[in-house]
Design a protein that fits this description.
The protein has helices at residues 26-46, 56-77, 91-107, 121-143, 150-174, and strands at 12-14, 20-22, 115-116, 179-180. By secondary structure, the protein is mostly helical. The relative contact order is 0.16.
């Protein structure tokens, strides 16, 4: 299989099932931003190579599951309205994120103020992934009138919360320093 097809050389791309749209189409922006989020999560995880903590394997497994689901979310966004998606996001996927957020939050030092993205490189990269997930959410909201599964928007919203807490969890697990926002600048 060749990686290049030349079919996008004139500024269009294919949605799932082959219909062509401009590469500037909001749907393309939304699923591309899901891909960008996924890539940033992968970068964050690469910064954990060589690091050790008791629950690292569990953390990586959870993050890989999130990456897989996020890939499918992008596919769901890339499926035209008049076609059926082969994999559909469920409420249980959102529930999984919420359960993990709550579990991590129980062991984290409570926040007293806003924090700046900081600490361990993996934590800072997870904060970046969080902001990209927020952009994906905003883009998905923009196409929601074209019938995007409403659970997609909820998932992306919760994913950004999940990534925020994951960044804090990595910092706490590896001794990364969280820098509080200073009010007097």
């Amino acid at each position: 299989m060749r990686i290049y097809t030349r079919s996008g050389d004139k500024g269009t791309t294919s949605l799932v099932y082959g219909s062509r749209v401009p590469k500037t189409d909001l749907r393309v922006e939304a699923y591309g931003t899901c891909d960008e989020t996924n890539s940033m999560i992968g970068l964050a995880l690469s910064f954990l190579d060589g690091e050790a903590w008791e629950l690292k394997t569990d953390f990586l497994q959870q993050m890989h599951r999130v990456q897989t689901i996020l890939f499918h979310v992008g596919s769901e966004i890339a499926t035209p309205n008049d076609r059926e998606v082969s994999w559909k996001l469920k409420q249980s996927h959102i529930d999984e994120l919420e359960e993990q957020i709550d579990a991590w939050d129980e062991v984290l030092t409570p926040l007293q103020t806003f924090i700046l993205p900081s600490g361990h490189r993996a934590s800072s990269a997870l904060h970046t992934a969080r902001t990209v997930a927020r952009r994906a959410e905003r883009l998905a909201i923009g196409i929601s009138e074209e019938t995007v599964n409403p659970l997609v928007i909820s998932y992306l919203n919760r994913l950004s919360d999940y990534l925020f807490v994951a960044a804090r969890y990595v910092n706490q697990s590896l001794g990364g320093e969280e820098i509080p926002l200073q009010a007097d600048v």
